[in-house]
Write a structure and sequence with these properties.
- The complex is a heterodimer of chains A (683) and B (379).
- With 683 residues, chain A is an alpha+beta fold.
- Chain A contains 17 helices and 26 strands.
- In chain A, strands 14, 15, 18, 19, 20, 21 and 22 form a seven-stranded antiparallel beta sheet that branches.
- Chain A is elongated, with a radius of gyration of 42 Å.
- The two termini of chain A are 57 Å apart.
- With 379 residues, chain B is mainly α.
- Helices cover 74% and strands 0% of the residues of chain B.
- In chain B, helix 6 packs antiparallel against helix 7, helix 6 runs antiparallel to helix 9 and helix 7 packs antiparallel against helix 8.
- The relative contact order of chain B is 0.08.
- The chains are: A alpha+beta (683), B mainly alpha (379).
- Chains A and B meet through helix 2, strand 8, strand 11, helix 16 and helix 17 of A and helix 5, helix 6, helix 7, helix 11 and helix 12 of B.
Chain lengths: 683, 379
């Protein structure tokens, strides 16, 4: 007995509105967690973010996969339970209520309705009945007549379907939750717990992965990615689970012919599409198809989507420029594919090249920033007209291919580089750009190597080589002093000049302008620094010009005349040389040619819950509209033998519409019952 | 208390020659659009176009002034298209385009008109001036007309940039803010007519003005109004149904919240003699939340269907999806409490006001503070 009352109480609680509202609130709050904390990131990111103490705590609480966590699913489970018990509890009374006309309602209870009125009638009972029944039918009511002692009660109702709406909407919630559960990762968890499947690491060859980490063709619910380079094929999908992967065998093989990547003029992506060939492993039947974003394809009950794309191992030819001072073999060739990691072996270099990514084109805005418009009217004018014009000047240009790679030294320290293949114009001159950064979160700092009159970087690099060669500093200093002072200068002055120049070159060769600047700061009083800096720059430019002459002479080229363009090249070379001393690696890899290979990433899913969820969604919409917009009304007209009629109206909702519709029905019925009284006959 | 129009069940029937004419013109316009622009549509786009005809006809039958509004907006948009003659540069050369009905100009007019309308409604409320309130109404009608014209013309302009760029202007934060302003304006105008009172305008127009202020800031300081092409994930007919349905929801929730504010003030005796009775305010609040909830449900489901096609899964707890879910839960709870519990009183009004904060976060906050798949408009 006691047991029964406990379960009864539990049932009451589960089906109560209070419980349901509390659940909705808790579910809402719980959902917020997963939007604040990024979900399904690599575990390392969380470890970095939270530190070694909190990381395992949050992992235990399943905060990295909130929506698949046991506690979240438990709350959802309670919602399903609460909704179900609510349906069960409401079903019988609601259905009874739907069918019933309540034709035995007493006059005394009708008279207590909020909406009721007593009307007089000039018709006899039969005529009154006919008129009223006709009216009720016209107004969309279903009527049941009950002749009884105190008169004839016409019990009419409409909009009972709103109750069906309740069942539709609430069973929809249950269906959607159950369908979602089938497509979530619960089936996978079950297989891991019961079928002995274990997650494995992602850094291994597919063929090395053991059977306990492979899911068979009989798996009826999964979502994974298939990676296929152009010209290759694949028949397994990779499922990312926790901090590792599982492999899902597919009943077919997908080969990628070509991956299409199109862009708008603005550089925004326009189209991602994969031309694929799917071959059924069992029958050998094959289909050609193009899969695009928003245009998935179903084969063998498995849906395939264009998820993303990657480099499929583009092959790159590079030219290495040895930046070490005094190096004899100035350039050397290197070949690598994206994803490769190769040793750079050239005259004692000890670096590993890791090619990270390649981009066949880069679209950049090359326009200079305009001065902001200060005049309000003019600023408003700029915002009138069509939505097509850009208020700021834009000059979108494809600046060509780029490669991103890491150079790792023998100590394991790596720096990342980004090099553009083609020179880029800046302020009227052309440069090869090479960016360097020490951590992935830092922005690239660019070294700009100026192009010479032949459109090559050779001149600048040759000047650099002479400038940084310690063995040449004496010679450069002597020549510069000679040019500056002329042949007749006193030897003491000449020596001082020569010494200063050699010292400047030595400083510059250590850390570029930075070393020179530090030297100025530490030795020269503040008031004279600016002047001194000018002198040092003059010296460096002069020595640079001498270095240029030397480089030309040793290459067997005729001497040059100085002009504006060459002066600029020289200044740019000094800048590039200075930057190269902070470049972090003694080699600059110039991209010479490439053969691009793309790879597509297709998402493949089998989601058995989808039709259930869709059915649930349909029911939900129908249910919500039925509940909110079908109005249940019950109209009672008691025609009494005494020639009086009682009109009463009830509704399942209280709203202003009810007042209005009662007034209409009352007035209409009053007019019908008193056909000769004219329009003013109102009670 | 007087309700201007009779029971709803009668509303969806044509009642005169005007209604039939309206439906006929709509059908004609759809056929014209199919013939003229059918080449840019796939079969789903065409189906949506055809379904819009009965939808708009039903709205026009239920709410007569809507017919005039739609006709005016369509006429202005067609006028604009005619003046353009297929050449974008004419937006700078033709006077009427430059200063009236090119898309940006029309949207600027909408903004200005909404601001002035807000002032007029407040003047009407505080000075008990019928004339000022009528002016407020008229200005609001003009504002939604200009806003609609602006969006329609923007649609056309996007195709003038390039046929591969053209798309319905509901694709980024700027465009949907225009949509939000005019849907909220239209919903308000509907209730204004239905309850025959202009007293709520002062409050509802405040939230529209706030949206417009954001829109102007977004346009002037972030240059967000430039038409951008669509990224691959957005190139789908689903956008045409998902986004507008969503904004009927957002607009209705915003309206309900402002009525909630009015409700709370009346309960404290502030402006009580000027504002409608608590019965009316409560009824409008319920109606707005009901319509908002119904459309928000549809929008979320349409979004799920689209997600299944674009991202391969109908629900993946992306921040935007999750916040949509939270909004949905919030209003589901509100409706349960009012309908099943029969609760009335200040709590519902408070809840509607707080609901707007939740909705605003789902609408704008997610884009600002959280990252996810729905990052189509950042600030």
């Amino acid at each position: 007995m006691r047991h029964r009352s406990t379960s009864r109480a539990l049932y009451e609680l589960l089906s109560s509105m209070r419980f349901a509202i509390s659940l909705l609130t808790i579910l809402g709050i719980a959902s917020i967690i997963g939007t604040v904390l990024k979900q399904n990131e690599p575990y390392n990111n969380y470890l970095n973010q939270f530190g070694p103490f909190w990381f395992p705590v949050f992992e235990k609480l399943e905060l990295y996969t909130v929506y698949n966590s046991v506690w979240f699913l438990t709350i959802l489970g309670f919602l399903v339970l609460s909704t179900s018990t609510c349906i069960v509890r409401q079903a019988r009374p609601m259905l009874r209520d739907m069918r019933s006309f309540r034709e035995s309602a007493r006059e005394s209870s009708l008279a207590q309705f909020q909406h009721h009125a007593r009307l007089g009638t000039s018709l006899d009972a039969d005529a009154a009945r006919q008129a009223t029944e006709g009216y009720l039918a016209r107004a969309g009511f279903k009527v049941r007549a009950n002749p009884r002692e105190d008169g004839l009660l016409l019990a009419a109702k409409q909009g009972s379907w709103t109750r069906i709406g309740y069942f539709l909407a609430h069973s929809a919630i249950v269906l959607i939750c159950l369908g979602g559960l089938l497509d979530g990762n619960l089936p996978l968890k079950a297989q891991m717990a019961l079928g002995g499947k274990v997650v494995t690491s992602g850094n291994q060859l597919i063929s090395d992965i053991k059977p306990e980490s492979r899911l068979g063709l009989d798996n009826w619910s999964f979502r994974g990615n298939v990676f296929i380079p152009e010209g290759k094929s694949a028949n397994v999908a990779v499922l990312n689970v926790q901090d590792g992967i599982l492999l899902q065998d597919l009943p077919f093989t997908v080969s990628l012919h070509k991956f299409h990547l199109e862009h708008y003029d603005t550089g925004m992506p326009k189209r991602f599409a994969s031309d694929i060939l799917i071959t059924d492993n069992a029958t050998g039947k094959s289909v050609e198809k193009t899969i695009e974003v928003n245009k998935p394809f179903e084969f063998d009950g498995i849906m395939m989507y264009q998820a993303s794309f990657e480099d499929g191992g583009s092959r790159l030819k590079l030219v290495g420029h040895d930046l070490r001072p005094g190096s004899t073999a100035a350039t050397f060739p290197a070949e690598a594919a994206v994803g490769d990691s190769i040793k750079l072996a050239n005259a004692g270099l000890d670096y590993t090249l890791e090619v990270g990514s390649f981009r066949a084109f880069n679209i950049e805005n090359m326009a200079n920033e305009e001065a902001a418009e200060t005049n309000t009217i003019a600023s408003l004018e700029k915002h009138l007209g069509s939505g097509a014009k850009s208020p700021t000047k834009k000059d979108m240009k494809n600046v060509g291919p780029s490669v991103q790679y890491k150079l790792r030294d023998s100590a394991g320290q790596a720096r990342e580089y980004q090099n553009y293949m083609q020179p880029i114009e800046q302020d009227g001159a052309w440069y090869l750009l090479s960016g360097m950064r020490e951590s992935p979160s830092a922005p690239f700092r660019f070294m700009r190597i100026p192009m010479d009159e032949d459109g090559k970087a050779d001149t600048s690099l040759a000047i650099r080589r002479v400038l940084l060669d310690k063995g040449r500093h004496e010679e450069l200093a002597r020549r510069f002093a000679g040019v500056m002072l002329g042949p007749d200068a006193a030897p003491a002055i000449r020596n001082r000049m020569q010494e200063t120049t050699a010292k400047t070159l030595e400083l510059f060769a250590v850390g570029g302008f930075e070393s020179v600047g530090k030297f100025i700061e530490s030795t020269i009083p503040e008031a004279e620094r600016e002047k001194a800096a000018d002198v040092f720059i003059k010296i460096l430019e002069g020595a640079g010009w001498e270095a240029w002459k030397i480089a030309r002479a040793s290459a067997g080229q005729p001497p040059l005349e100085m002009n504006g363009v060459r002066a600029r090249l020289l200044r740019d070379t000094l800048n590039a040389t200075s930057d190269s001393l902070h470049y972090g690696a003694p080699v600059y890899l110039q991209l010479e040619s490439f053969e691009e290979v793309r790879a597509t990433v297709l998402q493949v899913t089998r989601s058995p819950g989808k039709p259930i969820v869709y059915l649930g969604s349909l029911l939900l919409v129908l249910g919500v509209f039925a509940m909110l917009y079908i109005r249940e009304r019950r109209l009672f007209v008691l025609i009494k033998a005494s020639g009086e009629a009682l009109v009463a109206l009830s509704s399942n909702r209280k709203s202003l519409d009810v007042d209005e519709s009662f007034r209409q029905h009352r007035d209409a019925i009053a007019a019908l019952l008193n056909p000769n009284a004219g329009p003013s006959a109102r009670s | 208390m007087d309700i201007a129009q009779p029971d709803h069940s009668r509303l969806l029937r044509p009642t005169g020659i005007g209604d039939w004419l309206f439906a006929l013109v709509l059908a004609g316009a759809a056929v014209f659009a199919l013939r003229q622009y059918g080449g840019f549509m796939d079969v789903y786009d065409k189906a949506i176009l055809l379904l819009v005809v009965p939808g708009l006809a039903a709205i026009g039958w239920a709410w007569k002034p809507f017919r005039v509004f739609l006709a005016a907006a369509a006429a202005l948009a067609l006028g604009s298209v005619t003046l353009y003659q297929g050449d974008l540069a004419r937006a700078e050369q033709v006077f009427f385009l430059k200063y009236l009905i090119s898309s940006q100009t029309a949207i600027m007019w909408m903004s200005a008109l909404f601001f002035i309308a807000t002032g007029a409604y407040w003047l009407g409320l505080l000075a008990r001036s019928d004339f000022a309130e009528k002016t407020g109404s008229a200005l609001t009608w003009c504002a939604v007309t200009m806003g609609t014209t602006g969006l329609l013309v923007r649609w056309y302009e996007s195709y003038l940039i390039g046929t591969d760029v053209g798309h319905i202007p509901v694709s980024n934060l700027y465009e949907v803010f225009v949509l939000f302003s005019l849907i909220t304006g239209l919903l308000y105008l509907y209730y204004e007519g239905r309850y025959a009172t202009r007293r709520m305008g002062a409050f509802v127009l405040l939230v529209i003005s706030a949206a417009v202020a954001f829109l102007l800031w977004y346009s002037f300081s972030r240059e967000a109004h430039e038409i951008q092409p669509l990224i691959p994930a957005l190139q789908s007919y689903w956008m045409k149904v998902h986004v507008p349905a969503n904004f009927i929801g957002y607009g209705a929730f915003a309206l309900a919240a402002m009525i909630g504010v009015a409700d709370l003030l009346v309960r404290r005796g502030i402006l009580a003699s000027r504002l409608p009775s608590l019965d009316v305010l409560g009824d409008v609040m319920y109606k707005a939340i009901a319509i908002g909830f119904a459309f928000f449900t549809i929008a979320t489901i349409l979004g799920a269907l689209w997600a299944a096609e674009a991202w391969g899964t109908y629900w993946q707890w992306d921040p935007k999806e999750t916040w949509a879910f939270i909004v949905w839960l919030n209003y589901a709870a509100w409706l349960h409490i009012r309908l099943t519990k029969g609760l009335r009183g200040p709590m519902l009004a408070w809840w509607a006001v707080i609901g707007l904060l939740v909705t605003a976060f789902a609408f704008v906050g997610v884009n600002m503070f959280l990252s996810g798949l729905h990052s189509y408009g950042s600030l």
